[in-house]
Amino acid sequence: MKLYDMELSGNCYKVRLLLSLLRVPYESIRVGYEKGEHKQPEFLKLNPRGQLPVLDDGGFIVWDSMAILVYLAREYGDDAWLPTAPGAMAEVMQWLAVSENEILYGLARARAVKKFNRPWDLPQCQRMGEGALSVLDGQLETREWLAADRPTIADIACYPYVALAPEGGIGLGDYASVNKWIGRIKALPGYVGMPGL
Amino acid sequence: MKLYDMELSGNCYKVRLLLSLLRVPYESIRVGYEKGEHKQPEFLKLNPRGQLPVLDDGGFIVWDSMAILVYLAREYGDDAWLPTAPGAMAEVMQWLAVSENEILYGLARARAVKKFNRPWDLPQCQRMGEGALSVLDGQLETREWLAADRPTIADIACYPYVALAPEGGIGLGDYASVNKWIGRIKALPGYVGMPGL
Fold first, then answer.
1. Taking CB atoms and an 8 Å limit, are A89 and B66 in contact across chains?
2. Same domain, A65 and A114
3. Is the complex ipTM higher than 0.85?
4. What is the DSSP string of chain A?
5. A48 vs B100: CB contact, 8 Å cut-off?
6. Which of A76, A102, A133 represents a domain boundary (last residue)?
7. Are residues A135 and A71 in the same domain?
8. Do B150 and B177 share a domain, yes or no?
9. Which of A133, A149, B143, B145 is such that its CA lies 20 to 30 A from the CA of A172?
10. Could you tell me if residue B71 is inside a domain?
11. Do residue B135 and residue A97 have CB atoms under 8 angstroms apart?
């Protein structure tokens, strides 16, 4: 198992975190993002979108962090990480959608502006990200995990850019339930961190 | 089955399209988007994100178009619309991710700027959207459907804002394979359109 990887990417980190929680061994292949290696023809053969992460599981290629989490949960987890019953699966999907929308285009983009000088509108991203934090905090007020009575890939998908929000100038002090949930994730057996966490 | 709905939303339309293809009867409940009904406390009880669409299936609430497509495919489709084998499911998820990223934040946002005066950066959105069209066109050069040898919810999720791209000032003339795929979707038994398509 090979993971085309970048240390500071929250999207790569969520895959590393699930691999670690599932105790699946893998080789991390660092891609030279700053040199634009992810836009070179060789890499585009792996992922036509030119993005990280990409997983190579014995020759089967999966790109996109959400698709990789789904793949790993189905192949190496059991029904616990991604239930297949229609209602239970939909609840996980709702939070994967939040991770791909308000979290990625709000929280992660705000961080990318501050940390990597990306050209997004910072206040717009911060507002969107704060909306996501309010929704998450409301959901976690009465429950321990986002989508079930146990951790699922919904939690793994949302966690990195939520916990990294302060790097985008968004404080987490007002979100007590989110903070407790962050603590629960950090206490999972097999948890690994990344720079900034 | 009730769908909280808005006629001109591509995200609502993708749910209406799948419901029609699956021959599932439902009641469309129009939400007064222009009056901000989707941000009122009553609606936020259904969906804390304050967005359309929302599905109410006999009291079970699902929000987010991607989650609703997954729910309907699992509950009312068979394995054809969303396979559950790990690799096959991951291939569908890859294109659901494109629908939530480059398509939504590129193509759909460009349309929202031109059609609804939304405050996004139009050239940035158009560039992102054109990137998505290139990736889709490449994928569809050698195959009829995005994620399998038959239509899946990947096609349903990507189709609306791709076909509506000209409303965002993005021509489809250069994407021959995408155009053929649009034709194949329109020919599916049970297909319904929306304004602009």
1. no
2. no
3. yes
4. -EEEE-TT-HHHHHHHHHHHHTT---EEEE--TTTTGGGSHHHHHH-TT--S-EEEETTEEEESHHHHHHHHHHHHS-TTTS--SHHHHHHHHHHHHHHHTIIIIIIIHHHHHHHH---S-HHHHHHHHHHHHHHHHHHHTS-SSSSSSS--HHHHHHHHHHHTGGGGT---TT-HHHHHHHHHHHTSTT----TT-
5. no
6. A76
7. no
8. yes
9. A149
10. yes
11. no
Q: Give the range of the structural domain holding residue B119, as residue numbers without chain letter.
A: 86-186
Question: A136 and A105, same structural domain?
Answer: yes
Q: Do residues A182 and A90 share a domain?
A: yes
Any B CB within 8 A of A62 CB:
yes
Among the partner residues B49, B67, B102, nearest to A90 by beta-carbon distance: B67
| Bridge partner residues of B3 (DSSP) | B28, B55
> Which of A44, A76, A108 is at the close of a domain?
A76
What's the pLDDT tens digit per position in A135-184?
A: 999 999 999 999 999 999 999 999 999 999 999 999 999 999 999 999 99
**B191 lies in a domain?**
no
Contact with chain A for residue B141, Cβ under 8 A? no
Give the H/E segment covering residue B2: strand B2-5
Kindly determine whether residue A66 and residue B98, on different chains, have CB atoms separated by under 8 Å.
no
CA distance A150 to B31: 34
**Do A119 and B119 make contact, defined as CB atoms within 8 angstroms?**
no
Question: Which residues are registered as beta bridge partners of A54?
Answer: A4, A63
Question: B182 and B90 in one domain?
Answer: yes
Q: Are residues A94 and A153 in the same domain?
A: yes
How far is B177 from B135, CA to CA, in rounded Å? 11
Residue B47, pLDDT score: 96
Whether this prediction's pTM lies above 0.95 is answered by yes
Confidence (pLDDT) at B112: 97
Query: Could you tell me if residue B194 is inside a domain?
Result: no
Q: Give the model's confidence band at A30: pLDDT under 50 very low, under 70 low, under 90 confident, else very high.
A: very high
For A135, the closest of B48, B94, B139 (CB atoms) is B48
